[in-house]
Design goal:
With 156 residues, the chain is an alpha+beta fold. The chain has three helices and five strands. It has helices at residues 10-33, 43-76, 121-126; strands at 89-94, 99-105, 115-117, 134-139, 142-151. It folds into two domains: 10-76; 89-151, Chitinase A, domain 3, CATH 3.10.50. The protein has a five-stranded mixed sheet with strand order 3-2-1-5-4. A hairpin with a 2-residue loop joins strand 4 (134-139) and strand 5 (142-151). The two termini are 29 Å apart.
């Protein structure tokens, strides 16, 4: 990771935008349940009200995080296709001959099994590599290797 704004894949952008829309809907629903006068009601009502306020705080923090991540991705522009970086789509051939198309992303973007975080052993090994280069990395079963076949959308 460069320390500057990092791009994200189109898939990760769509997922974050959907999560943001869902969070905004949830926030509207929770906010609508809050009472104007928290002094009204018994202690159970007040505890319930406090729980909803805490839920709003949690929602607001996540909304802020996602909004900032989308803004940073916009500043970063599209993922590079000449060298592997955060946001790249990478097709990799493993030592056993299997080929997989992976997304290099951040931990917060863990969308599915095809996402490799930039701070994982494979992710760190792939960062900065070009098509045709091989990488070595550690796995729980020992050292492994892979070759970068392509960067960008998977070959048709």
């Amino acid at each position: 990771m460069t320390g500057g704004p990092e791009p994200i894949s189109a898939e990760a952008r769509r997922a974050l935008e959907q999560e943001l829309a869902d969070l905004l809907d949830e926030r509207r629903m929770v906010a609508a349940t809050l009472k104007d006068n928290p002094e009204v009601g018994d202690q159970a009502d007040q505890a319930d009200e406090l729980q909803r306020v805490n839920q709003l705080d949690r929602l607001d923090r996540r909304i802020t995080d996602i909004t900032e991540r989308l803004r940073q991705a916009e500043l970063a522009g599209p993922a590079r296709t000449d060298v592997v970086g955060v946001g790249s789509t990478v097709t990799v051939r493993f030592a056993d001959g299997s080929v997989e198309t992976l997304q290099i992303g951040e931990g917060a973007e863990a969308l599915d099994q095809n996402l490799v975080t930039a701070d994982s052993p494979l992710g760190r090994a792939l960062l900065g590599r070009r098509a045709g280069e091989s990488v070595r990395y550690d796995t729980p079963d020992g050292p492994a290797s892979a070759a970068v076949e392509s960067i960008g959308e998977p070959p048709a």
